[in-house]
């Protein structure tokens, strides 16, 4: 199929005894679709997401994109993006420099980088703020910058790990709609982790529930 395919994925953390955080999960996400993993803390959803993007090595199973096995491919070669709940922006860089960082590391020419930054700022509703310091922004604006930075290289999959959980309820509700619309307008495939059922329903095309390392 076109898109992400996960087959019998297992994640085990060393310990006495070992902890099996993900216990044989299989799922698929079509290109352009956003799927939410919903469940309480400790259910394995973030471990599953981390194994998909390559941050955590699975103990068994496979991750593939368009039929290509990525299970042992390093995280920086998978073509996936990741947005964390705190954004993890560089506080000493401007908004534009944060967004352009990955493009510069990839060797994109300066003019092309500048054009891509402006395109993304417009997409996330922050046009004109390229020169602003990220420490001057609100929490919601910082998360939109983090989203723009992750979208900059044109990832084939964007993984979002509780991206709105640090925001207040009103802002979280509004930004959930904005992020959904941004993913759809950019045609980006999404994998969202959240503990909030309302957020999952707003942001995702499909919601998969996890409990004790399994899809239920």
UniProtKB/TrEMBL annotation:
Transmembrane segments: none annotated. InterPro entries: AAA+_ATPase (IPR003593), ABC_SmlMolc_Importer (IPR050093), ABC_transporter-like_ATP-bd (IPR003439), ABC_transporter-like_CS (IPR017871), ABC_transpr_FbpC (IPR015853), P-loop_NTPase (IPR027417). PROSITE patterns: ABC_TRANSPORTER_1 (PS00211), ABC_TRANSPORTER_2 (PS50893). SUPFAM superfamilies: P-loop containing nucleoside triphosphate hydrolases. It holds the Pfam family ABC_tran. GO terms for molecular function: ABC-type ferric iron transporter activity; ATP binding; ATP hydrolysis activity. The keyword Ion transport applies. Residues 4-216 form the ABC transporter domain. Keywords: ATP-binding, Cell membrane, Ion transport, Iron, Iron transport, Membrane, Nucleotide-binding, Transport. One of its GO terms (cellular component) is membrane. This is Thiamine transport system ATP-binding protein. It comes from Demequina mangrovi.
């Amino acid at each position: 199929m076109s898109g992400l395919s996960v087959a019998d994925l297992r994640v085990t953390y060393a310990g006495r005894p070992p902890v099996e955080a993900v216990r044989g999960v299989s799922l698929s996400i079509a290109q352009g679709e956003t799927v939410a993993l919903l469940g309480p803390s400790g259910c394995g959803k973030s471990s599953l997401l981390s194994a998909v993007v390559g941050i955590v090595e699975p103990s068994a199973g496979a991750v593939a994109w368009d039929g290509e096995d990525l299970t042992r491919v390093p995280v920086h070669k998978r073509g996936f993006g990741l947005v964390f709940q705190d954004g993890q922006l560089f506080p000493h860089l401007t908004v534009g420099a944060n967004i352009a960082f990955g493009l510069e590391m990839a060797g994109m020419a300066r003019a092309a980088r500048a054009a891509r930054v402006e395109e993304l700022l417009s997409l996330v509703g922050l046009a004109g703020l390229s020169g602003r310091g990220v420490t001057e922004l609100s929490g919601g604006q910082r998360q939109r910058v983090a989203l723009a930075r992750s979208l900059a290289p044109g990832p084939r999959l964007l993984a979002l790990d509780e991206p709105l959980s640090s925001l207040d309820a009103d802002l979280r509700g509004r930004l959930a709609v904005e992020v959904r619309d941004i993913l759809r307008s950019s045609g980006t495939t999404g994998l969202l982790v959240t503990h909030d059922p309302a957020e999952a329903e707003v942001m995702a095309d499909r919601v998969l529930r996890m409990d004790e390392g399994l899809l239920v």
